[in-house]
Write a structure and sequence with these properties.
164 residues, mainly alpha, transmembrane
Length: 164
Amino acid sequence: MTLIVFVIAAAATCLALGWWQWDRYESASGTGQNLGYALQWPLFAAFCVYGYRRFVKLEDQQAEIVDAESTEGSDGSDAAATAPVGPRPAVPDVGPGMLGRLLGRGSAPAVTEIPADLLPQRDAAPANVAGPAPAEPAPEDQRLREYNEYLAQLDERSTKGRGR
């Protein structure tokens, strides 16, 4: 019930905004942009109604699937009698094939692991990962250190020139 009220309110708001944009278009300061918005807002209202109808349709299909699964499991066999009794979840399994079943396309194959070639491969780890730190700094570190020393010298010169 709350969803119906929300959809009606959203559609009415969209139509009211469309009407307002139409009035703005017809005024002396109206532009083509106002006309475009005046034509868009009713489409948004129609989409609200369409979305609600689609939601209800998918709920009905889901209920049919749950009913079909419960009637298949109650054939009177020993497997059904030995199954643990408890509350049945309101939503059926949400595995990879669920969307396909809801849309009537049959069951999609279940993905059990990520394919190896899906992600880019890393380079092999260096042999001395757990070994001691290298004695000589990397060339990038040396250049960075030299650049920082140069900047410190420039700062020292500029502060001496200002009498600080």
